[in-house]
Amino acid sequence: MHQAATAYGGQRPLTVAALAGEAALVAEILKLRAENDQLSTALSSRAVIDQARGMIMALAPCSSDRAWGLLVDVSQHCNVKLRDVAVALVDTTRDEPLPEQIQRELGRALKRLNDR
Asked: For the residues 80-102, what does the mean pLDDT come to?
């Protein structure tokens, strides 16, 4: 097998295969880090969305599925990510005002839910 002419850090010479193996390992590490970041974000988003669902279920009252649908409906009508709608709703428990557009669409969605 062909060996590289340069030594790696003063150690044994590296082969092309060894360099390729290291590059593959680095690529795998980067991929796993990205997946880990995505999963962490998903878990934190899921928690706040579930809290918002619970709030809707207490307000309406309705099933978990209907609360989910209501949040999706508000998200779509406001053109705001579902997670952001949930965060805004949960933030009202800390005396943060609900943005007007979300407040308006939430009122409409609750009315539609009650009309069923």
From this structure: 96
